[in-house]
Design brief:
single chain; 149 residues; alpha+beta; Aldehyde Oxidoreductase, domain 3; four-stranded mixed sheet; four-stranded antiparallel sheet; 8 strands; 35% strand
């Protein structure tokens, strides 16, 4: 399941979707939040994500397909929010079920690395009257590189 939506999501419901009776040995999940990115504690921060409907979902499906090709997975669920978000809002859920924990952990980590670096989202941070588009950073590229070999 891949969803790109403005609405918040319920982790418990997504977790339950990943369970496959008599097959699931492990579920690995990641939930990402909007964090405070201003050094000024009283500065209101907002985060805005834009995407191209259809293109973004196809892009995410390609990432999930690659994970399924690398590991024997039972199910994968990716939910990514778009629109205006505030500090402490949930922004992304990635969940993977597999027969064994190693595959679930690795696939979840792989999907997050590719999602962070290659998914078709555009992010803008706003602090008071100032705003800027977020660019990929070197740390994300280093994380992604470990999956290339």
């Amino acid at each position: 399941m891949i969803l790109v939506q403005e609405e918040d999501f319920h982790v418990d419901a997504l977790y339950k979707r990943l369970l496959k009776a008599n097959e699931t040995g492990a579920v690995a999940m990641f939930v990402g939040f909007v964090r405070q990115f201003s050094d000024l504690p009283n500065e209101a921060c907002q985060f805005e994500l834009e995407h191209y409907p259809g293109m973004t979902e196809r892009n995410l499906q390609t990432i999930v397909d690659e994970a399924n090709a690398r590991w024997p997975l039972l199910d994968v669920c990716v939910v990514h929010r778009v629109g205006r978000l505030s500090v402490d809002d949930q922004i992304v859920f990635v969940g993977v079920s597999a027969a064994h924990r190693a595959e679930a952990f690795q696939a979840c980590d792989f999907i997050m690395d590719y999602l962070k670096s290659r998914a078709a989202f555009w992010k803008k941070e706003s602090q008071g009257a100032n705003s800027h588009w977020v660019e990929a950073n070197d740390r994300d590229e280093v994380s992604l590189a470990r999956w290339e070999s």
